Amino acid sequence: MVVLHACCHNPTGFDLSHAQWQEVLEIVRERKLLPLIDFAYQGFGEGLDEDAYGVRLLAENLDEAIITSSCSKNFGIYCERTGCLIMVAKDSEQMDNIRSQAAIVARENYSNPPAHGGAIVSEILHDPELTALWREELTEMRDRINTLRRDFVEALKPYGLDEKYACVAEQRGMFSYTGLTPEQVDRLRDEFGIYMVRSGRANVAGFSQENLPYLAKAIAAVND
């Protein structure tokens, strides 16, 4: 089995191009791998349909695939743990076997999932007006994050660090590896009150237009 992120790779923020997804497909075929595709951030990269490219490519061209789709982020209902498990099989007989095993696993783990989150998603997706509003709000969230990425790099330009951190503008999703060392992260925390995990992974959604100048100045200070 190989685990793949469909889009907005966490933690790096780097996504595969269409050509790279084609290469992944060939490698999966050649090595006879079973892909488990984590689809947690649909709509946060380039768009709802655009972010599904790799998922659709593998599902349409492989006999078997497992897809885990989450509504936690794109519906804003993280605490409801809402999503779905999608299985792809080569024929109906195999699917019957998979369905039987999946039912056993579900029964042993949680028996009956909470219904509230699923009801929210169903209500939205079965109402054209609510669906249109959801798509609009999701676009606003995606555009905000992508704009913050570009503006973050721009804010570092006066310090001569824009090229060093240019990758952040190229990445997608909520998270990015900044390249900051654990020691630099410690300084950001102790001297400037800026927090991130010591690996240098930053939550871009936590940026704002108001705090970007302060953030850029602090990063410049720890890069001295």
UniProtKB/TrEMBL annotation:
Its cofactor is pyridoxal 5'-phosphate. Residues 2-219 form the Aminotransferase class I/classII large domain. Keywords: Aminotransferase, Pyridoxal phosphate, Transferase. Belongs to the class-I pyridoxal-phosphate-dependent aminotransferase family. Homodimer. This is Aminotransferase class I/classII large domain-containing protein.
